[in-house]
Design a protein that fits this description.
about 0% strand; 2 domains; mainly alpha
């Protein structure tokens, strides 16, 4: 029988000369209900299993809505972050695929709205860069108009003022404004248009309805 030291050297040579740390085995797959129950307790392994099972389907959903691959990876992770943050409120009335689908579609639509606003801002910045510089009188006139506009907005009834600011000043979509104000989309639309009508009347401007705006040819 070889001495202990020689026996240790032989084992070292046999296993590559170094001691290897034991491999950490991944937990065996669990059922959907077991994963959800564990995920509610904050079990990271269960959350990982849910992510691996559903990430591909969520990716396809987001791509169908956005038609853009540039932000899809971040959106997929955001879907699961939101899902796991609210998983305790998920009672299983619907299938988990349906629950994740709703989260994915809402996030994708919000992303589209945000990208559309960014493109409008970029286009406006490019247009402004090519405009002729304002004269001192034009600067004063614009400042006075802006001050008058702010005064008019401040006098609006609160429900119309809040909706008008959300839509016309902050540039929120109807869905985003609805979430901010805690009222339905149709209510936001009505209040914002009413606020716009009141602002136009106070400034002596003609109010043009959204339908008429859409019907007007682009210039």
């Amino acid at each position: 029988m070889p001495p202990p030291a020689r026996h240790a050297r032989e084992r070292a040579r046999r296993y590559g000369g170094t001691r290897r740390a034991p491999l950490r085995r991944r937990a065996p797959p669990r059922s959907e209900d077991e994963c959800l129950a564990a995920a509610r307790r904050g079990d990271r392994e269960a959350q990982g299993q849910l992510f691996r099972r559903h990430a591909r389907r969520v990716t396809r959903t987001i791509l169908r809505v956005t038609r853009d691959e540039s932000g899809v990876e971040d959106l997929v992770h955001e879907v699961f972050i939101r899902a796991f943050n609210s998983v305790r409120r998920f009672r299983g009335d619907a299938r988990i695929e349906t629950w994740l689908h709703v989260i994915a579609v809402n996030l994708a639509r919000t992303w589209l709205d945000r990208e559309a606003r960014r493109r409008r801002r970029d286009a406006f910045a490019v247009t402004r860069a090519h405009e002729e510089p304002l004269s001192p009188d034009e600067h004063v006139e614009r400042a006075l108009h802006r001050e008058r506009l702010h005064t008019v907005i401040a006098t609006l009834p609160k429900i119309f003022r809040d909706a008008f600011i959300a839509r016309a000043v902050d540039g929120l979509s109807l869905r985003e404004a609805s979430r901010r104000l805690g009222v339905g989309v149709s209510t936001v639309s009505f209040r914002a248009q009413r606020g716009e009508q009141l602002v136009c009347a106070a400034l002596g401007l003609e109010w043009v309805s959204p339908r008429r705006r859409r019907a007007q040819p682009a210039t």
